[in-house]
Amino acid sequence: MQDSKQKQFAMDAVEENGNNIALLGDNIFYFAELGMQEFRTTGLMTEILEQAGFEIEWNISGIPTAFIATYGSGKPVVALHTEFDATPSSSQMAGVTEQKPIVDGAPGHTEGHNVNAAVMVGAAVAVKKTMEQFGIEGTLRVYGAPAEEQLVSRPYFVRDGYFKDVDVALHDHIGSNLGTVYGLRQYALISAEFTFKGESAHAATSPWNARDALDAAVLMDIGWDKLREHLEPSQRSHRVISNGGDQPNVIPNTSTIWWFFREATAERARTLFEKAKRVAQGAATMTDTSYSVNVLSAVAPTRCNRVLAEVIQNNIEAVGMPEWSEAEQKLVTDLQTKVNVKATGMPTQVAQLREAVQSVSANDSGDVCWVVPSGVVNFPSNIPGIAYHHWGAGVSLATTIAHKGAVAGAKTMAASAIDLFMDPQLVAQAKETFKEEIGGVEYRPLLPDDQQPPLELNRVLMERYRSAMEAHYPKEKPAFS
Ligand SMILES: [Zn+2]
Fold this sequence. Notes:
single chain, alpha/beta, 2 domains, six-stranded mixed beta sheet, binds zinc ion
């Protein structure tokens, strides 16, 4: 790690495109596309990357909105990856301190994935320019990962070998500070639908002719609750009955119970899932029904490599916190007061490097972290104390707060990538310590071999709102130099 002219060039390149990074994030904010339906979002991202000289590969793992953009060749292979999907029923105007949808009922961004995308593209364009300017060798690969909010895409990328030859990977995610961590960050998760099939009959006149699929779903629920006493306290499991039949006088011939199984390690999540299949078989036996399983997502815990965290931290300190204006701080404290959280304002100091505390949440980038040394850049575009998916988390995302945070994040990501391209020792150290960190764990995908991605996810919902949302798209598009 050093203060090289190459790094300065990369950070200046981010700064020069600051306005375009802001415009890209704002455009994606107003597109507000749900997972697997991010066609305009990825269209704009790849248009920029293509114009900047990247080669675009579409349809990664058969997902239409998944892409890889590549520049350069040979070693090392440095990957940047991030997500860009919105959340349902979250439409929220930017820059106001009350709940006010842009389009009532429509999707919106309430976890800053619009800014994540802008940071990654801004960093990628700057790194590419720097590589070209100084003749830096290696491959820069940018992964567009759809449907993070439903934990879909990256486990497919890893299972299908798209990270096989990657040396190090950097992920960026919105936060309330400029910071990074190392160690285990999140949980493993398997999301699966269990569908029972039986036979209908009139519930009053001939119930003895039926095989009740809803009974099977209910018995699976009861069975799991009995088992719960004997499970490790580290597990979390929860469910909804997403199909419980149509009306009471028709005994349901189909039912679906949708489960999330969470555990601290991938193997323990796998064990929970295997137990769940046995409980389902028990419920099917009791009701003379049959069952099938559809795995909607299956992700390993996220984790970060210490060496990469140190590289990132060094650059965080070089970049520093953005200067917040009085008006920005006022918006932040007004919103914090409105939603009853501590009125701290935006932080003025960058975060210190720390070991992560493993949380029970999950992110679909988990699998990447078990095959490649991984680092994360968190950047300050979210208002402190506001929980994601709350309307308040949409407020800052298309304002100068998000714009400034994005530039700081993109500079950090770009400078860290340049460090890795220029110092083969760093990459070697990251790989060596990565092996020590994961110990004897041998990665096996949690995703079944034959599982296909859910391409229809959110399609109907997105189509319902698209035309009403189009009226609010920004007129101005980014034009990166
Ligand atoms: Zn997120």
